[in-house]
């Protein structure tokens, strides 16, 4: 764990530190039990109040928190018997996207998602979760396998965007993403994507054309990163905060816009402060949505998926 504390978390962390110090001083005795219980209740109330009123900028900071659970963390909590499959069978493997076969409540599923690193070495290996073309072609291979064997597809989204390097562009980054979009639109199996952290630009959308789109409570999803938006619109990357406010990128905003189907609650204080509770809530949501999708015919699912994405971006012109 990095131990990073965001500015709006600081009063809560300071209170929790005081509680730990009191517990250490009191030892096994009960003379300070009432005071400790009072402070614990105060800390919980402070967390609920503060996290119920986060600004989009603060939501973005939470979504990018270095201690936030990543794809492999959720796979370990929600799925069993995970077998990772590597390589695109054309160029190589891209560790920025992980995927394979696993079981959800005993049923086989295909899972894939972007994976970030916890330290400098891991981030260099994972390329900070920014996939290259071979990563998206690996994703295509897994999608086709899911369709061939009739296995539900689960995509976990967590990336600042697709890698924009020269090598990636030379190997067809745009084509790889476009092919993912085309392929996912026609999959015959039930598919769900979950934004677990950052959902940035085409790199996120490439694995997000699914029957249902879920978002964790403090995740973000946008057509461009706030920093990129600020650089383009205002020629000033420091205007990132303003861009975050304008992009309507929070889970609550996107439910209102009809893009996100459900907001999955996180543990009090964010997923990085309670992976088991967050994973349990996500598990329940996945079980429910897969059950609903399984009850539909293939044709019905395809038609609903098509209609879902056709509705996005609708603009009504006023006279």
TrEMBL record:
<keyword id="KW-0276">Fatty acid metabolism</keyword>
<keyword id="KW-0275">Fatty acid biosynthesis</keyword>
<dbReference type="GO" id="GO:0016743">
    <property type="term" value="F:carboxyl- or carbamoyltransferase activity"/>
</dbReference>
<keyword id="KW-0443">Lipid metabolism</keyword>
<dbReference type="GO" id="GO:0005524">
    <property type="term" value="F:ATP binding"/>
</dbReference>
<keyword id="KW-0444">Lipid biosynthesis</keyword>
<feature type="coiled-coil region">
    <location>
        <begin position="22"/>
        <end position="49"/>
    </location>
</feature>
<dbReference type="GO" id="GO:0003989">
    <property type="term" value="F:acetyl-CoA carboxylase activity"/>
</dbReference>
<comment type="pathway">
    <text>Lipid metabolism; malonyl-CoA biosynthesis; malonyl-CoA from acetyl-CoA: step 1/1.</text>
</comment>
<keyword id="KW-0067">ATP-binding</keyword>
<keyword id="KW-0436">Ligase</keyword>
<protein>
    <recommendedName>
        <fullName>Acetyl-coenzyme A carboxylase carboxyl transferase subunit alpha</fullName>
        <ecNumber>2.1.3.15</ecNumber>
    </recommendedName>
</protein>
<dbReference type="InterPro" id="IPR001095">
    <property type="entry name" value="Acetyl_CoA_COase_a_su"/>
</dbReference>
<dbReference type="GO" id="GO:0009317">
    <property type="term" value="C:acetyl-CoA carboxylase complex"/>
</dbReference>
<dbReference type="InterPro" id="IPR029045">
    <property type="entry name" value="ClpP/crotonase-like_dom_sf"/>
</dbReference>
<keyword id="KW-0547">Nucleotide-binding</keyword>
<feature type="domain" description="CoA carboxyltransferase C-terminal">
    <location>
        <begin position="38"/>
        <end position="292"/>
    </location>
</feature>
<comment type="subunit">
    <text>Acetyl-CoA carboxylase is a heterohexamer composed of biotin carboxyl carrier protein (AccB), biotin carboxylase (AccC) and two subunits each of ACCase subunit alpha (AccA) and ACCase subunit beta (AccD).</text>
</comment>
<keyword id="KW-0963">Cytoplasm</keyword>
<keyword id="KW-0175">Coiled coil</keyword>
<dbReference type="GO" id="GO:2001295">
    <property type="term" value="P:malonyl-CoA biosynthetic process"/>
</dbReference>
<dbReference type="InterPro" id="IPR011763">
    <property type="entry name" value="COA_CT_C"/>
</dbReference>
<keyword id="KW-0808">Transferase</keyword>
<comment type="function">
    <text>Component of the acetyl coenzyme A carboxylase (ACC) complex. First, biotin carboxylase catalyzes the carboxylation of biotin on its carrier protein (BCCP) and then the CO(2) group is transferred by the carboxyltransferase to acetyl-CoA to form malonyl-CoA.</text>
</comment>
<dbReference type="GO" id="GO:0006633">
    <property type="term" value="P:fatty acid biosynthetic process"/>
</dbReference>
<comment type="similarity">
    <text>Belongs to the AccA family.</text>
</comment>
<dbReference type="Pfam" id="PF03255">
    <property type="entry name" value="ACCA"/>
</dbReference>
